[in-house]
């Protein structure tokens, strides 16, 4: 090794890092730390991770109760608002992303789910039948990514939880655990889906099949604390001499020698810089590769600052174009969250989540068992059951919406100056979704089960609109990128969302198995029935983000606006990959963290061993 790589180090100051490493990883988040752990496992390859945030032991990160402490702590989050959303009455939306070692896995709500098999087969389909991006190929990486510890037997029995360990692994340092308590209303509300004909029920959340199911929590079941990329990967690598991490450091540029990535420059966070380098900047050389893992919002920014992106955008920021790659920062997607509010007036199943606030005896008991042995309701994050439903199951007009989607003039829904390759990629995605809207293999609607009297979150799992994340050309080095969800820009999104909300109403209000609970609709109100009324309601209320930014450095063929190839290498550049949520060409029909871990595990193999041969596929 280089002389000073004698002990693993976490550096607070950029001046202390070595001059060169085999691999440099930009961003110590979910994907970055996973890849760093795997690449240093053999004790040989030297790796530097450069992270904007700090190592933090804050209770906001470790606490599982409620699942929201991390996302409420602004010291752990970037401070970004979207541009005003023209279709949402000019509302701006808070863009949440973790700014700490562990990245967004340190602040997320800990819901541990995957998309369906078709979601991952769709990724490969854009490359043709020989692609190694398939559900079958990714399943071993899902298994490597997480350590599944089944729920306690008594809780499993009393709540009727089902699971199947064959879809899981048990070696990772990142845990998929379960709380030691479930509210009895959760099982009742799972069962209530049986009141609607045609509901699919699924045995295990990891099986790749849509339906109603139970899912675990990113939680270390022994410590009853968040399990995330820092605990599962950084802490594991921390005593290796070949692993270095520098915190409080913002990567400003990938150094390119011609079109070969040879290193990076970074500056201390907070130091103003009129360009990629200044007096406080540090340059480090990568002997083998630079791996960009700055997440869906910041990976496109780092590429654009480095001269990799759409020529027109870069020249308006006075950045010399090294590779004209129009897809960088395009194809931006996130899961829209819909707001409808139901309250059961006669919910007689207790204890319920509301009792934690309304029933002093119950909340005292909850506090006591938590204090005694970290058990009880306070070990629940956001809950463990939800419905993930295909479109034909929730809507009678799936076929007509699918036909309209297939025959749309797709280019009308992207920004006017969009590159033809990006348009072609969008069209390919919409045609794939037109097929998926008609079948039962892709989930479009997610209803989270609350277990109590108040209704849970409602999510559109496959938005059709596409946004952009681009550098702010007026001061690209000292500002956050401009985040534009372009919410509802494809008008069919409003129709799909209206049907998701109509179904939500049906589940609560017109379902024999929920009738006795006597739901009241607080929002939008029963007078909202037509598509026009739903659209108006959505314009006022929809949030285009469930904090799952993706797609901005899409893994697609270059002629479909792709930024990286199937080996996650940036087109036109040698020695540079992107590994994070930004490579997803389309969102999976589920919260994104587990998929990011699986992608990172697969990427580590691609980096170490190259493309899998046909026999392994
Ligand atoms: C509030 C919130 C709630 C969520 N809830 C869930 C959930 O319940 N379940 C689920 O599955 N998913 C959830 N997600 C999504 C999931 O956590 C993310 O999709 C996933 O963690 C993204 O991983 P990543 O590696 O792409 O990016 P990140 O984990 O965000 O990592 C990117 C890292 O790069 C660093 N970085 C950025 N720019 C630079 C730079 N220029 N220089 C140096 N470092 C840089 C960042 O600080 C960060 O640490 C949630 C996300 C958020 C924010």
Radius of gyration: 24 Å
Number of strands: 25
Proportion in β-strands? 15-25%
- Percentage of residues in helical conformation: 25-40%
| Uncertain residue segments | 1-6
| Text of the CATH class of the domain at 60-99 and 103-227 and 334-541 | Alpha Beta
- Could you name the CATH homologous superfamily of the domain at 60-99 and 103-227 and 334-541? Glucose Oxidase, domain 3
Largest sheet: 8 strands, mixed
CATH architecture of the domain at 60-99 and 103-227 and 334-541: 2-Layer Sandwich
Bound molecules: flavin-adenine dinucleotide
| N-to-C CA distance | 35 Å
Protein structure class: alpha/beta
Question: Tell me, what's the shape?
Answer: globular
Spell out the key features of this protein.
binds flavin-adenine dinucleotide; single chain; GMC_OxRdtase; alpha/beta; 17% strand; 8-stranded mixed β-sheet; 5-stranded antiparallel β-sheet; 29% helix; signal; flavoprotein; 617 residues; 25 strands
Molecular structure report:
- With 617 residues, the chain is of the alpha/beta class.
- It has a domain at 60-99 and 103-227 and 334-541: Glucose Oxidase, domain 3, CATH 3.30.560.
- The protein contains 18 helices and 25 strands.
- The strands form eight sheets. Strands 1, 2, 3, 11, 12, 13, 14 and 25 form an eight-stranded mixed sheet that branches. A five-stranded antiparallel sheet has the order 8-19-20-21-17. The protein has a two-stranded antiparallel ribbon with strand order 4-5.
- Strand 9 and strand 10 form a beta hairpin.
- It starts with 8 loop residues before the first strand and ends in an 8-residue tail after the last helix.
- Mean pLDDT is 96; it is low at 1-6.
- The site of flavin-adenine dinucleotide has 41 residues, from helix 1, strand 12, helix 9 and helix 18.
